[in-house]
Design a protein that fits this description.
By secondary structure, the chain is α+β, with helices and mostly antiparallel strands. The protein folds into 2 domains: about 60 residues, Arc Repressor Mutant, subunit A, CATH 1.10.10.10; about 170 residues, Beta-Lactamase (2-Layer Sandwich), CATH 3.30.450.40. It contains 9 helices and 8 strands. Strands 5-4-3-8-7-6 form a 6-stranded antiparallel β-sheet, sandwiched between helices. It has a two-stranded antiparallel ribbon with strand order 1-2. Strand 7 and strand 8 form a beta hairpin. Helix 1 crosses helix 3. The protein is globular.
Amino acid sequence: MAPVRSQPQGLAVAAKPGRSASNRSLERGAAILRAFRPGSTLLGNMELAERTGLSRSTVSRLTQTLVGAGFLQIDPKTRGYRLAPNVLSLAHAMRSGSTLLAVAAPLMRAAAQSNRINVGLAAADGDEMVYLESIRYNPRPSLRSVVSGQRVPMELTSLGRAYVAGTSTERQQALLDHFRHARKAQWAQLETDILQAIDDMATHGYCSASWQPEVVAIATTLTFEGADYALNMSVTSTEAKPDVLRRLAPLLMELKQKIIRSLSALE
């Protein structure tokens, strides 16, 4: 099971100047829904408070509201909460209504299948990246499976580092400050790696990371309808990383251009 990451204060749920109480409640309610991850079938108010950084009284009030709205269900035996089916219907509506996915997914699948690699598309949520699509054709097994909706750490992955490199200066600095605070023990090396990724994106248009054993991933950015996304390719391989990058980089950039051209043709 992946370690639990609390919601990043200042990036997702913290109140901002000028925000009304109703807006803050909406942000905090969204933070409670985000706290549910694979392996977290039932969560009580205390666990939700720990994961979101919100007070127990605030969590108690919001969970009751979310139950009434049909987004959470309460377990009568444990009094814990689970996600309700309404959440799945929202995810389905997002996927089926996404122009980006409709255009990108067939091109991603073709690239993955013809080159026997893994291809993913992700968007940022707080300090994590959420897979919108993950197509796996690399024949070598990996220690983890990756599916749509799965979250991965922004600061460790090629997807996340590409996103950080491509986002606004203000948000980039906020993310770096957050990682510095959250990853104090590892920050010296992480900062070097992230800054290298930012430089690689500026120089080459892509960056890489190897945060899982024998997995090499390379990523670039995509912007569509004002939103920023990250596109990646990865393989599980014992090849030297530079050799893998020389093979994947042209494939990734070609796929990016195919997606951009296909999206432009719709305008």
